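Open question from group meeting: does this chain pack into something compact, or does most of it stay loose? Before anyone orders reagents, we agreed to write out a predicted structure and look at it together. Recording both the input and the output here so the notebook holds the full record.
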Amino acid sequence: QVQVVESGGGLVQPGGSLRLSCAASRSISLFPSTGWYRQAPGKQREAVAFINSGATTTTTYADSVKGRFTISRDNAKNTVYLQMNSLKPEDTAVYYCYFGSYWGQGTQVTVSS
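C-alpha cells returned:
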C-alpha cells in the first residue's frame, strides 16, 4: 500500500505560478513512470504531464501545457513536482498524481482574477 498526497494548489491570478507536490509514503524509485492528470468541473480527467526515469529520464506534456508546465521528481524525497507557470483560467481543475495504481485525493487549482 502506498499513500499519495498532493499539495500546493490554491487560487492564483492569470499569469501566475504554482508548484504542486506529490508525496508518496514509500520509495518512488519503485515507480519509474509517474505523472499528473487534471479534471475540470463537468469534464473528463485529462493527462497533463508524465515523467519516466529509466536509463534516461524523459518527460511528456499535453499540448495545452507545453512550454508552461515542468514535471520533475526527487527520489530522495519520494516526491514528484509540477511547476506551473503562465497559468490560464482554463488550467483551473483538480490536479491528481499517481504512482503505479495508487492515486492521491487531488489538489484544487483555481486561476481567476
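Observations to bring back to the group:
DSSP finds no helices and eleven strands in the chain.
The CA atoms of residues 38 and 111 lie 14 Å apart.
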